[in-house]
Amino acid sequence: MKKSLLEEAARFKRSIGTKNESSLHKTLKFQYTGDGGKSEVQTGEFVADGRRKDGEYIEVQTGSFGPLRKKVKEFAALDKVRIIHPIPVNKKIEVFDTKGKLLSRRKSPLHGSLWDLFDALLYAPELPLIKNVQIEVVLADITEKRIKDGKGAWRRKGISIKDKELTAYHESVVFAKKSDFTRFIPFKKGEEFTVSSHAQKAGIKRHISQKTLYVLTKMKVINRIGKKGKAWVYTR
């Protein structure tokens, strides 16, 4: 898979597809659709990113899973669905002028991890519970190409994001059933914990723990059983 992903990335290094599709999105779409599969498949009122030869639907989602809620349910009623979610472990940012001249190149100080999956699941915690649905997280290095055109967001000082490319593959992790998510709970069954104790034991920041426990409670991977002082208490 590692070699294949990088080969696909090389194919799309200088291309941006229809609907402003990034090179990263295209790389993953074609790789996971596979030989004999089809891309941009109309099914009912929705269009799937791809459908494999064996019938499995492929959806590549770089952001929140919220927009996928209706379409994934419709696809899952017909066949298996695999949601591909890339998370940038390392990100390099390149800024160009409007003529294509490279102005700057730097490494982002932010580093992604599996815990970022809960940002995507925050507004769609029910998706992993739907029959026939599985999530595959792709941990990779990404290069983000920007253009200094004055049309971008104010927080980027008018610089627009032009493309994202996959530049290195680390690993992929599949979440096919509810029990796969217990890896995020470093406590034994029946052991009680709070946001603070979870964050400390997992080695993550408090706000990440809050999102994680919210999603896992909605998924019924953990239970919220009461309060200890002002803190909610959870158990597996």
Task: Report Rg.
Answer: 20 Å
Helix run count = 6
Distance between the termini: 34 Å
Order of H and E elements: HHEEEHEEHEEEHHEE
Whole-number average pLDDT?
93
Instruction: Tell me how many strands there are.
Output: 10
Strand content: 35-45%
Query: How many separate domains make up the residues?
Result: 2
Approximate shape = globular
Tell me what you see in this structure:
By secondary structure, the chain is an alpha+beta fold. The protein has 2 domains: about 1-175, no CATH class; about 185-235, Arc Repressor Mutant, subunit A (Orthogonal Bundle). It contains 6 helices and 10 strands. The chain has helices at about 1-10, 25-35, 70-75, 115-120, 195-200, 205-220, and strands spanning about 40-45, 45-50, 55-60, 80-95, 100-105, 135-150, 160-175, 190-195, 225-230, 230-235. The strands form 2 sheets. Strands 1, 2, 3, 4, 5, 6 and 7 form a 7-stranded mixed beta sheet that branches. Strand 4 (about 80-95) and strand 5 (about 100-105) form a beta hairpin. Helix 5 packs across helix 6. The longest helix is centred in the last third of the chain and has 13 residues, at about 205-220. The chain is globular, with a radius of gyration of 20 Å. Residues about 15-20 have low confidence and may be disordered.
Task: Provide a short characterization of the protein structure.
The chain is of the alpha+beta class and 236 residues long. It is 23% helix and 36% strand.
